[in-house]
Design brief:
Blueprint (H helix, E strand, L loop, with lengths): L20 H19 L3 H22 L6 H12 L11 H15 L9 H10 L20 E5 L4 E6 L6 H14 L11 H15 L6 H17 L7 H7 L1 H11 L6 H35 L5 H11 L12 H8 L3 H13 L3 E4 L6 E4 L10
Antiparallel strand pairs: 1-2, 3-4
Length: 377
């Protein structure tokens, strides 16, 4: 099998967008809806939504690479770096600091064109302070051994892709950077459809695989930068959340696209993933709007214990509080007796702040404004 970079037409990607008009229209319409929803929020909730998306993107892009980061560590790192914490919160995982710093850098400089220093800087930001000893940070790979992407399976290691030799990387990256900048909005060869440019940019970068490690995370950061340049606003979609949820399909689509320079099916797949990401963000923003109204209505009617528990439940977002709230969980969160927990929950149900499912020991409570199906333990 010849990989895309081994073929005579590399990197003159071609694609047929006929039949995708409805996808692009849906993407554009959902983009407008999201901008409208966010514009209707006050600055505080709008910033909170942006930070939640940064955390989700950071955790998910790392999870795709097999790294399990704690969301609270990423959140603390982002808030520290934004100066939102009066006293910096401790962050024990340097990986969380690195990926959070990368997301913030992309957000801050999204409008700037790429230059020779941008991607090596991202690489340094990502790995500073925790990289393996033998990993060269902030520079393209130079080792002579083939760069292979391997799937670990019990029976054998399967080679999914082999990238261009290291000697070719500097020239390939110069050409990639030139392509990225000349296809940006307002540039000589601008691509009018944001999903098309983001899809090609991601596949193009991943095919070169210029670094020894971190290519996936940096390649997905490029998705955010490309989309943000088209929208004229900082990155909005935590695309990696959707890709991580469907990571097998994502890897399979990348593998299929790496064997050809006809990217028609890759663009179709990628655009559908962006739309799913938009749906998820819209769901979360609508949840945030309902949450604001909910607390505005009920805070005057409840005590501090109840407010603390409701806030803890709401922090789980539209997916709902796993397993629902029980008297035992209420005791642990509010640090109160079982009798008080039972009484507090009964009152919250009576005033319609919580809905109730089950009976007897199996009674569980759920936020009344959440339309997510209850999750079971």
């Amino acid at each position: 099998m010849l990989y895309n970079w081994q073929q005579a037409d590399w990197p003159d990607f071609r694609y047929d967008l006929r039949g995708m008009e409805a996808l692009f229209l849906e993407f554009a319409e959902k983009s407008g809806v999201l901008r409208g929803l966010l514009a209707g929020l006050d600055a505080g909730p709008r910033d909170d939504s942006a930070i939640s998306n940064l955390v989700a993107e950071s955790v998910s892009t790392s999870a795709i690479e097999g790294e399990a980061l704690k969301p609270e560590e990423v959140m603390s790192s982002i808030c520290n770096q934004l100066g939102r914490n009066l006293k910096p919160a401790p962050v024990h995982d340097r990986r969380a600091e690195g990926v959070a710093a990368l997301m913030l850098d992309v957000r801050k400089h999204y409008a700037a064109p790429l230059d020779e220093a941008t991607l090596p800087r991202w690489h340094r930001i990502l790995f500073e302070g925790w990289a393996p000893r033998d990993l060269v940070i902030g520079a393209y790979r130079t080792h002579k051994e083939p760069m292979r992407i391997v799937t670990n399976r019990p029976e054998a290691d399967e080679i999914r892709f082999e990238a261009p030799p290291a000697a070719r990387v500097p020239a390939e990256m110069k050409r990639f950077i030139r392509w990225f900048n000349t296809t940006a909005p307002g540039a000589p060869h601008a691509l009018t459809q944001a999903p098309v440019r983001a899809a090609v940019a991601h596949l193009y970068f991943e095919s070169i695989h210029p670094f020894e490690d971190g290519n996936g995370r940096i390649g997905r950061a490029l998705i955010g930068k490309a989309l943000a340049q088209h929208s004229g606003a900082p990155p909005l979609l935590p695309v990696s959340v959707t890709l991580n949820r469907r990571h097998k399909d994502y890897y399979d689509a990348l593998r299929a696209a790496s064997g050809t320079n006809d990217l028609t099916e890759w663009i179709r797949y990628f655009t559908s993933m962006l739309i799913q990401s938009q749906d998820e963000v819209e769901h979360e923003v609508l949840f945030l709007v309902r949450k604001i109204r909910f607390f505005s209505r009920f805070v005057p009617l409840i005590n501090p214990r109840q407010a603390k528990v409701l806030d803890r439940m709401a922090r789980e977002g539209s997916k709902g509080f796993a397993g629902g709230m029980s008297a035992t969980k209420y005791q642990a969160i509010a640090r109160t007796s079982k009798a008080t927990a039972t009484r507090d929950l009964a009152k919250l149900h009576a005033i319609d702040a919580l809905t109730r499912t089950g009976a007897g020991p199996g009674v569980r409570y759920h936020l009344s404004f959440s339309d997510a199906p209850p999750q079971h333990e």
